[in-house]
């Protein structure tokens, strides 16, 4: 689904509402930019802040009509549900601890939801959302952004096609530096991310480890069955783990290793993976997302590149620009929004609409379980089974 | 001007019309995606094709009202000029030989213009547009996309600040592979690009050499005063030069070298430069646009990165995402559209609105002169002065 | 100690003897090439094989006089000890299980020893060698080759000087592919490496993990105090672990992670480390050994390069060629041999002769302990203390 | 010819003498290190300096017997020619203007010669050496070091095998920084390199441009037939050109471009080439010599690596260490010395002994012609034919 071919001919458009995202809400601005790029959604409603003034300003700036510029998501859910032209989907971009309630209300109102990760802060909450969504086959997506990169999809397709043989070992690291700086200068986002009552049971693991874990399961099609985690806190002023190591066993026989950190200087958004197979190894890194590196036993390495003719079909359909005109982060998120539009076209059969798996409530639940199980493993200093979900 | 901060608070928006860009017009789709990202323009009018059916379909798909969905740019120019709410700017994305006439008509109607490069196919035409624009101080921009990349702006600012010392030598290469393939399978774009009556006097030089030349002048602030060009045709089926070498002398004392090619396998959009100064060398490549490489005499190399705190001010204002969440081609073009919006806010004083120089008709003219002078130099096999413009 | 400045003026030379290293003994050839490069040793004696014919051929080819071309290392130790001009040092390059006995005999004869890693196959043996060596202050070196690379030494010096702040976390990976191929085609070296009676208690850990472990202690100056290891066997035909993960705690407060594998396609000799400090992160990889990457919080990355003027003193003295004329593996090993010569010049005070720590019997013992402790940890699936040595 | 397999079984050894190379002669030390690595030559004679004391010291340090430690090369040539066991080859490593006379004397004495590049300072001298050598089929090699790199040989073999199709364009750059520093601190080597009476007619072109030119002819098997050169002097204190651009036409239909500079900060020994064919482009750079990058039309790039099983035969025979244990500059020069030994084994038929072309007097002459013809072209500012040689 190219971002460029979506304007002529005109594709079906969807009405979107946003929860969170007033002035200063950084990631909400990213979501709106991706929405504009994807060009399949019109933002027509919102509850942009818990602060009324921020709400009003945001809605006005974003061209939301006054009557759909809600002061809170509860009003929004009930009012939208009552309209003839309700929003087709609610986009939840609040801090972690404010995911559960709006998601629940929209699901109860039968309105599809797109929610930031980590889904919620406990597996009980996640399972409750699952029950609500399954009751009506309501569309629900969790924005694991990195699965929108064409070359991540290309990696997945190549692995499934056997290009690297059988998977032996999976390594993923996700390192950030933002927590390494002067702690007195950290912004609001840093503060709630270190507060267990808001961020959930883990710090680095919930913030970025979930992405890393999700990408291993996405790539391999294997599910984690047990893990051994070491959660470490190296930054005293932060209330949660900032450096984590998780070893994993997967149902397909692979073993895995995950390293996540929030205070690693020189790492801006350092997600990278290396999947070792019996025939080849496949590597990708988020900061150079246009290429996929396949290194083979005794032979020349291959550098696959987004937009070239030897891409797998799963990757090719997610490409917009030709190779050489680089795509990047916003385009990856826009690819997800294109997927969401395609899925929403399917109505109750939204699960059948896509050839690439969409991160749904089950993936969201697994991300929450990663935190819960890792906390237990780390305190026991031993391996713990990972629940079937 | 961040693409993300432009939605809250709401910035002034401009009405845009597009000439060219019906179904299949690839670069027009790119311009529209960048327009959506920039979020400062509403596309309200257009003459999208010389084919009426294509026109109608495109306008409808793009949500243009029927009365502003014109069948040709002549009607568009006169009708828009007569409206109370005319377009604030016309965006011309037709093939090269169809730039001059619409640009002229819009300028005559007092309507600002944004035009793809190369500006036109002769310096006489370019100078005529200059006269028209100067008469009314009408805004006119030529889309040298690569000057929108923050790290190109960072390079320029560092060079101006003396970080590399005095410039000794400037090297730029711009290599593409599209003409290297099976010539029977080339698309429409390839065909007109090899036809002198449409593409203008040169092939590789007009198509990509102009970008490369522009970027050297943009970076250095120096103007070419003489050149020695060798235009080569290595692809028999193409009607123009496909491989060019141009040596240049600049008014600031630097010498330069440009290599452009359209049939270089393995080069997707291979623009890269290396500016050698007395203290350091600065390098950048379009396919890895997030970093700037500064290598110093006897000391550690520096890798500057978009979004970090040690960026120059000129670069920093063009940044949207934090370092690590990569930006790329569409974002660079959107930066230009943000600049255009800022300039248009300035009305007749648009030239004073920006801290980074905007590619105007003079830059467009110089691109056309590059082709004309190089043809002469290549046929004489000698150096030829470059006109002052 | 430059390899190039050692010939004029002439430095003191040492008589060396070699145990192992007949035809087909690959690493012995590497040692001899490094000896020639270092230009401080004359190979005058040897017991090159357990096979008499191979012994004779090798000694003759290597220009060893017939009387010092011994048929076994026992004869060699006693005969050399009895000479007026005995060898100054014995170089032991036999398979792992044949390290202990020759080392013991030479130490008993008061002859210094240079031995390949892993030192021996049990900590009891290692401690017995320690006792023998300490009795006479006899020089004993274990060839941890990678500590000979100038940029590894540069990393160590920068870490000690506080350039990256306090160490938060240390990651090292060492991946090879040789075991991933057709197992029926594996050579002699592969066979004994998978045989516990010869290779010792571990496979990947003993073969390459010891290098990785040693380099972390070398870089940080911190000592491992506890570890949690997972030893995995993914290649059925190999009799030992081929894929290992070890988590570590260090006495200086750092945590560490080590991943070693012998069957990772596309990894030829993939040793790389990443040391995360509070101020910066430092990275190096063996296959691109000429540069050291220091990435800092929010600022430009630094790429240090061997041979430039901003190198640390510890690194600079180990450099031979100017930056740009690359050095590599043989030069790194030759740097170690230059160190050995310098140390041997010191006689009983050999420990004081060098500014960079030399891997001695204690480092050798720690490598053996790594295997022993990891086997225990892996079978218990829990953390185990690492003995003080 | 592996550097490692040359010791068992023992290969035939040759007696070498050296002209130049006393204390402080940097490149002579490099040659001696490469000689030790190659392990086929014994240095038994020398005239190491024009200064008697330096001569004596050097010879003594290098273990030369007093009677073969000559005070000048004239004595050396006559005395060696008169011996029963004369040197098999003379290695000339003096400054450029002192190449001709010793080469001439050794050739007249029937003694093979290995000479540094550039061969001599005029084509008349080069042709005189040619006549002398041809008279007796005497072996004569010019040390174009970079042709000893296995991956340069791999590139040549792949080009010959048609892997990149027909050559369209060849680009080579060779940039150094040494002249960019404080001119008052430049060493002896810098001073004579800027003195036309010693360095020859050009600066950057003679010093490094000859290497770059040679490598294009080596890779392509095509011969330059015409060139257009621009020789520039940007460093006032240097007496010759320091920045050069040369455009070339070749007899096989390819065009070429060469950029050489001595004052480009951040470039230590920056030789790199890019050969554009109709099917693929092949790239290599001296500072990362272990890989060859082949980028293909629309398909994954290939990264070939020294030591892997898919190497061409020409490259494979020049490999010593396995992939992953990197080789570098000294190994490349040692590969040339291995070639010289193989060639010398052939006696008068030395030209038939090698599968990779050896740079002989004709290549040396062409390097000298490059300077002479470029000076003419640059002063005429036009194209000039390149003589057939």
Automatic annotation (TrEMBL), chains A, B, C, D:
GO terms for molecular function: nucleotide binding. Residues 152-283 form the GFO/IDH/MocA-like oxidoreductase domain. Residues 14-143 form the Gfo/Idh/MocA-like oxidoreductase N-terminal domain. This is Gfo/Idh/MocA family oxidoreductase. It comes from Mesorhizobium neociceri.
